[in-house]
Each structure stands twice: as C-alpha cells, then as structure tokens.
Design goal:
Elements (H helix, E strand, L loop, with lengths): L1 H22 L5 E5 L3 E8 L11 H21 L5 H24 L2 E7 L9 H27 L2
Antiparallel strand pairs: 1-2, 2-3
Helix pairs in contact: 1-3, 2-3, 3-4
C-alpha cells in the first residue's frame, strides 16, 4: 500500500507539473475561486518558503536519505499501523515528486496559489508531504494514548 500510494502521488504530481510547464508561462496566474485560489506558474530553486536557494545537491542528498529511511521503516511497521503506512506513502511520493524536479530541472515547479492567508505557492508533492506529517503526528498521538492506557 505504501508504494502504490507513493506511485499515485508521483504520477499526479508530475502530470500536474507537466500541464503547468506546457500550458502556462512562468508568472502567469489563472483564477479558480476568485482571488482565493489561483493556478500560478512558479519555479522554486530552494526548499519550503524559498529557503536555501541554490543548494540543489543538498536537497538531493537529504531526499535520498529520507527515501532510504522510508523504505527501511516500511518493512518494519506492522500492517495494523495503517495511518502511519498511509503517511509514509504520501511522504515518499511527495519526496520523489520534488526530487524528480530538482534532478531534472534544478528547481521545483509550484502552482497552487492560496490567498486566504499569505502562503507560498506549492504543488501536489508539497501537499502530500504536509498531509503525511499531520497523519504521522496523529498516529504518534494514538500510539501514545494506547501506551498510556496499557500502563494504567
């Protein structure tokens, strides 16, 4: 399940980025929900929020380490930890999706532009990573509660 979910995220991420690169100019913005949600073609040579720009190979090395850790963890996590397995699939798919961009183009294609709050433009891979982290935190909380209950 982890690897199937990862492949689905990678395909969705890369296909959406292909569409943006093919049909939009950099900087072009298309409103989807008025001024709240737009598709905006953007390139990010750095990490989240544009940090560490120009450190491409640092990101590649870190991502390879993360991918290796996910592969290792996947084999050690029991099937009953479904939430954690889903989060690992999302994390793996997101990491590989952005890794492909960094290796092939030296930058990540971003296009989801939300204006409810001042938030950086992001992509499907970024979304998968954020959702994965939230699910991991929920899984950790559930495991903590179970452990606490068994100690009583």
């Amino acid at each position: 399940m982890v690897y199937i979910l990862a492949v689905l995220i990678i395909l969705l991420d890369q296909f959406s980025k292909y569409l943006v690169k093919t049909y939009m100019q950099i900087g072009e913005s298309i409103p989807l929900l008025g001024d709240v949600l737009r598709l905006t073609s953007h390139r990010n040579p750095g990490a989240a929020f544009g940090m560490l720009q120009g450190k491409r190979w640092l990101f590649v090395v870190i991502t390879v380490i993360v991918i290796s850790a996910i592969a290792y963890a996947t084999g050690r996590i029991g099937k009953e930890r479904k939430l954690l397995r889903i989060s690992l699939g999302l994390l793996l798919g997101g990491a590989v999706g952005n890794l492909i961009d960094r290796v092939l183009h030296g930058e990540v294609v971003d296009f989801i532009d939300v204006h409810i709050i001042h938030y950086p433009i992001f992509n499907i891979a970024d979304s998968a990573i954020v959702i994965a982290v939230v699910l991991m935190m929920i899984d950790m909380f559930i495991m903590w509660r179970k452990e606490e209950a068994t100690q009583r």
